[in-house]
């Protein structure tokens, strides 16, 4: 389900400090857009059993104050449209500024839950100062210090109450999202898939307002396409076009089971592509990579290998991902791409029986046991796949704390070699037995 928390506010109130704190256990996904004077950030955070995407709307536009304030206002509007919950951050040490009031006006008119977050409350003396923020008319004030972390737990406890739950329907169709940078060919691919087959296509209103799921049922494949390409709206401030497209991408990604990531063969894999890839990986989504516009590439017998190696280098260590070279305009390998997505979906739900898992993995572990640390030998006794919406394995052993990352990687590779989990992130846990 797509739960997005957007942090809005004027510069210097501490948005990126909070963002870093919320995503600290994970590697932050830093998005570096050209034309924007600082990075915009989005990443994955966790609180109790909830996983969600946090967006720091910190990017701002160089130029006159007018453009600058217009850009911030527009980001707030986009956040209202796209986010589940908005954190409106203000600074207790400066009180209320005009821009704070402007932002509050916009937020009051929106329909999304807004939390007024008074930041930099580093000590108790500053608590009283925050009362001034009641003047926004946006309800309770949540006092935090992003620097020390105080108050953030209480804030998140309240925030997650507004999250949408996983749908309970067991018989849902697989959901695929086609994502990628502007102009890579997303709309063309969707048109190629459904364009001339209107009779079998029914647009279905998505779970979230204004997101469209297209039902595809042809050639033995039935699934929902989470459509973002057709829904692009025009942002008034140029730099916000990117922001808008990132928001839509995150949302589509969160609503899908498998992400079909399209890369432009001519431009190659870029940082934004890699960010989307890692976001999919962290969200435990299946992934298929399409290298599109393959018709524009001059090829010899090494070209495919060169592309594959380059992509793998950038997506490492998660490299067990199907890569399909497509030309949407020449209708090359479009169906193969769909087959790959279906296979990945199947892999994502695959359950390896415990007996088979142990028959295959225990001899491998016996031949290559975990290296001993400080004279301690780890003995792995048995393995079981934990049920869930993506593959998770528990390795039961005497000393789980002594198993290091490289051995974990080794086990993951062996699982991948013996059971097809192509395109799917795998979780491995070591448990005491
Ligand atoms: P942004 O522009 O809203 O993203 O703000 P930043 O996160 O970049 O923070 C602006 C400045 O405020 C930085 O110098 C931070 O170190 C500082 N800051 C952020 N949070 C706190 C806090 O809780 N207490 C104090 N004293 N300073 C903070
Ligand atoms: P989107 O922004 O990702 O939805 O991209 P579009 O589907 O609008 O495609 C952008 C442009 O790339 C259009 O002019 C398409 O005709 C062109 N295009 C899409 N796929 C291909 C392809 O496989 N080969 C070539 N040569 N052009 C393509």
What can be said about this structure in brief?
The protein has 433 residues and is α/β, with parallel strands linked by helices.
Please describe what this structure looks like.
The structure is a single chain. The protein has 433 residues and is α/β, with parallel strands linked by helices. It has three domains: 4-162, Rossmann fold (3-Layer(aba) Sandwich), CATH 3.40.50; 175-348, 3-Layer(aba) Sandwich (Rossmann fold), CATH 3.40.50.300; 354-432, GMP Synthetase, Chain A, domain 3. The protein has helices at residues 15-22, 65-82, 98-109, 152-159, 186-194, 240-255, 271-282, 303-315, 334-349, 354-367, 405-418, and strands at residues 4-8, 30-31, 40-47, 50-56, 85-91, 114-119, 141-143, 175-180, 202-205, 212-218, 221-227, 258-264, 286-292, 323-325, 380-386, 392-397, 427-432. It has a seven-stranded mixed β-sheet with strand order 2-3-4-1-5-6-7, sandwiched between helices. A seven-stranded mixed β-sheet has the order 9-10-11-8-12-13-14, sandwiched between helices. The longest helix has 18 residues, at 65-82. The relative contact order is 0.10. Bound molecules: guanosine-5'-diphosphate (GDP) (2 copies).
């Amino acid at each position: 389900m797509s739960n997005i928390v957007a942090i809005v506010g004027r510069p210097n109130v501490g948005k990126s400090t909070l963002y870093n704190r919320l995503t600290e256990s994970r590697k932050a996904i830093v998005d570096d857009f050209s034309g924007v004077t600082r990075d915009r950030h989005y990443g994955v955070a966790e609180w109790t059993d909830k996983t969600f995407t946090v967006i720091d709307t910190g990017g701002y536009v160089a130029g006159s104050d007018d453009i600058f304030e217009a850009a911030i206002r527009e980001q707030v509007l986009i956040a209202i449209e796209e986010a589940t919950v908005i954190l409106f951050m203000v600074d207790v040490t400066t009180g209320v500024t005009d821009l704070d009031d402007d932002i509050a006006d916009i937020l009051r008119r929106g329909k999304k839950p807004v939390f007024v977050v008074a930041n930099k409350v580093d000590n108790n003396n500053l608590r009283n100062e925050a009362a001034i923020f009641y003047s926004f008319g946006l309800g309770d004030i949540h006092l935090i210090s992003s620097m020390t972390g105080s108050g953030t737990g209480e804030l998140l406890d309240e925030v997650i109450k507004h999250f949408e739950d996983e749908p309970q329907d067991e018989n849902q169709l697989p959901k695929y999202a086609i994502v990628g940078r502007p102009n890579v060919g997303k709309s063309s691919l969707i048109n190629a898939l459904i364009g001339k087959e209107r009779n079998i296509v029914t647009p279905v209103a998505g779970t979230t307002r204004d997101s469209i799921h297209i039902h595809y049922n042809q050639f033995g494949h039935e699934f929902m396409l989470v459509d973002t390409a057709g829904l692009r709206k025009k942002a008034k401030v140029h730099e916000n076009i990117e922001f808008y497209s990132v928001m839509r991408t995150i949302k589509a990604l969160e609503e899908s089971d498998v992400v079909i990531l399209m890369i432009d063969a001519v431009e190659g894999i870029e940082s934004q592509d890699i960010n989307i890839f890692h976001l999919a990986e962290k969200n435990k989504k299946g992934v298929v990579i399409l290298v599109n516009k393959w018709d524009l590439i001059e090829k010899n017998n090494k070209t495919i290998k060169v592309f594959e190696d380059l992509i793998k280098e950038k997506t490492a260590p998660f490299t067990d991902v199907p890569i399909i070279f497509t030309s949407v305009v020449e209708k090359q390998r479009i169906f193969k791409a769909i087959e790959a997505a279906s296979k990945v979906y199947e892999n994502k739900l695959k359950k390896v029986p415990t007996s088979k898992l142990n028959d295959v993995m225990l001899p491998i572990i016996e031949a290559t046991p975990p290296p001993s640390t400080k004279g301690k030998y780890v003995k792995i006794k048995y393995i079981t796949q934990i049920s869930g919406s993506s593959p998770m394995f528990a390795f039961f052993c005497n000393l789980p704390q002594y198993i290091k990352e490289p051995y974990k990687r080794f086990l993951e590779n062996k699982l991948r070699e013996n059971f097809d989990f192509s395109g799917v992130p795998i979780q491995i846990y070591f448990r005491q037995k």
